[in-house]
Predict the 3D structure of the following.
Amino acid sequence: MAFRSWPVVTCWITRLSWRITQVFLSSYAMLPGGPDGGSLLGTVPIDDNSCFCWRWTWNVRQAFTPEQIEDMNGGSKRGGVSYPELIPGTLRPAANASNDYLIDRELQRTLNFTGAFGSRAQDALATESMGAIKDRTKEHLATTDRGIISTRRRILRSARDLAQGIEPMAARDGSVYHIRSGSVTIPRDAAFDDDPTAKQALLAKI
């Protein structure tokens, strides 16, 4: 089943900015990427310690320009690259733990806090540095971790249900996937679930 997490990322006096990531059980997440597009991440276990990750990016209104494609592949130096360079002949990113994620101290001084180039390398640095297996009982989750808490509870509940022979609803009803991720700013006192701007942002365009 698909569900959403909605951390409030920016707050003004009269308006709130919401960034909504749709999570599709069991292993996909849809990230907001503008009104007409987004990205879908897929994570599939290889063994107990590692996994394969895929990413798709799209725009339903128009084709990507050569400049946009170059940017996604790291052609610009803004640090927003979506698709990391791979070691030739493998599916392993060139920036990885064995080479300290190719941290560039000049980049760290002038562009971002990590010194790693691109969001994927930065995400890997943060997650892989914890180790292959993390003892979650030692975590200190807070209010801003609501999405993580909800996701884990849903996955565990679905796994227990499946063990009892109860199949997840999404395995039988593809209509629950007719949604999109989104990023929207609405009045502070507006009810998110009833706001027309928020509803439009999450509606599938095709």
The longest strand covers residues 15-24. Residues 146-163 form the longest helix (18 residues).
